[in-house]
Design goal:
Elements (H helix, E strand, L loop, with lengths): L8 H20 L3 H32 L10
Helix pairs in contact: 1-2
Length: 73
């Protein structure tokens, strides 16, 4: 059984980042439902971690503007 409320803030933050990244993978594969579920779980855990993932994604896209047009590996 997971004790979400008793986790250290840094653990919650890292778990939320991982969930957000996994959500992005599901979106990229076309699995919107699973992506939404994971994204919602990540936001509930730590919204700031999700915002960091989005910011990282924006920065990565800015450094390689054509990245979004290439197929996923």
């Amino acid at each position: 059984m997971t004790k979400t409320n008793s986790e250290a803030p840094s653990d919650r933050h890292e778990k939320a980042r991982l969930l957000a990244e996994e959500a992005l993978e599901h979106y990229a594969k076309g699995n919107k439902k699973k992506g939404d579920e994971l994204a919602d779980a990540a936001v509930k855990l730590d919204r700031s971690a999700v915002e960091e993932v989005v910011q990282d994604l924006d920065e990565d896209a800015g450094s390689d503007p054509g990245a979004a047009k290439r197929p996923a590996r």
